[in-house]
Amino acid sequence: xxxxxxxxxxxxxxxxxxxxxxxxxxxxxxxxxxxxxxxxxxxxxxxxxxxxxxxxxxxxxxxxxxxxxxxxxxxxxxxxxxxxxxxxxxxxxxxxxxxxxxxxxxxxxxxxxxxxxxxxxxxxxxxxxxxxxxxxxxxxxxxxxxxxxxxxxxxxxxxxxxxxxxxxxxxxxxxxxxxxxxxxxxxxxxxxxxxxxxxxxxxxxxxxxxxxxxxxxxxxxxxxxxxxxxxxxxxxxxxxxxxxxxxxxxxxxxxxxxxxxxxxxxxxxxxxxxxxxxxxxxxxxxxxxxxxxxxxxxxxxxxxxxxxxxxxxxxxxxxxxxxxxxxxxxxxxxxxxxxxxxxxxxxxxxxxxxxxxxxxxxxxxxxxxxxxxxxxxxxxxxxxxxxxxxxxxxxxxxxxxxxxxxxxxxxxxxxxxxxxxxxxxxxxxxxxxx
Length: 434
Description:
This is (Fe-S)-binding protein. A hairpin with a 2-residue loop joins β16 and β17. The chain is globular. It has helices at residues 21-32, 43-46, 48-57, 180-191, 213-220, 252-272, 376-401, 416-433; strands at residues 64-68, 77-83, 86-92, 98-102, 117-119, 123-124, 131-132, 138-140, 158-164, 167-171, 199-209, 279-281, 289-294, 325-330, 334-338, 343-352, 355-365. By secondary structure, it is an alpha+beta fold. The chain is built from 8 helices and 17 strands. It folds into 2 domains: 21-164, Rieske Iron-sulfur Protein, CATH 2.102.10.10; 181-433, Naphthalene 1,2-dioxygenase Alpha Subunit, Chain A, domain 1 (Alpha-Beta Complex).
């Protein structure tokens, strides 16, 4: 399903006025001189001017994952999300689509909606009660004796929004990148069997990580550090990202078990007509993607100590719990795990050059009952712990990147997706600068 709003007003194509021409030249050279196969130079992670550029060239230009229909299932339901300096209202419409509005009152700039989520009819700014329709039109802004003005000129500014396979994406650019529809056509058949429209939110975790958003994404794109995730390693094979040629000796037995489990998984997928093959275009298109269906260890059903299901209710029209996980990475700010019994979405919201909000949301079947069909603590335990461990890892990297003695180090073979993410990122920023 797709729902779009009218084209937004263009955002500025320049960096903030506080960035001088000399600084912009230095930043451009920084991107042009990036060393392939190595981590980024310190300013990429620490410089406020680079962060300002990221907000324009990446978050102000590309399609971003924001939320899912499970969070705003009914007309009038909304969530507010922030990407650096941008604040957006994402509002479910009567026809099942979404309106995406900048959360900035056209009177004096106050936040119109201040809660993270809720339900509303008209949108009323709490400062001076300017009132907007769900489409953002100004419908009330007068008091006795005031000079009349044209309300049509003061609607809330709009952004693009669309729903694909139950996931909601937004774009702040006047004209969004053109290949997102093609990417959606890739991932929709993988996600359709899980039917997000028939799920509900079981739990949502918000963590502020004291690190640059790129370090958060880099950490997610590799499993070289997965020895640091003991809970996750119970069900996620720690050989992710490896190949026959690169498996270390101590993981040979695990690698063999993984290949056997993957073969069994693929046989079941063929039986049910569920796609499973790897599609990997992380840095070869504007809307970078990697998606596949991969085996889990143990019972092969879910992220639990023995790989057993964590909810008794199957999602959508699935007929088998033993379907591993459908894993999807989308540039620039999201990743997802779709199991037969529940879904986990991850969204990254930059705050500033050294802070990032990571939002994790667990979805279960809309008729699943807590305490009967699933235990909330058991459902969320593995990824709660994993997220806290990742928070510690990326914060160590942020501290290191700020050190005067830091210099970029080489990526290992298993970190090729980190390199792909940075290739994508630098390409997109250089295109913006050009």
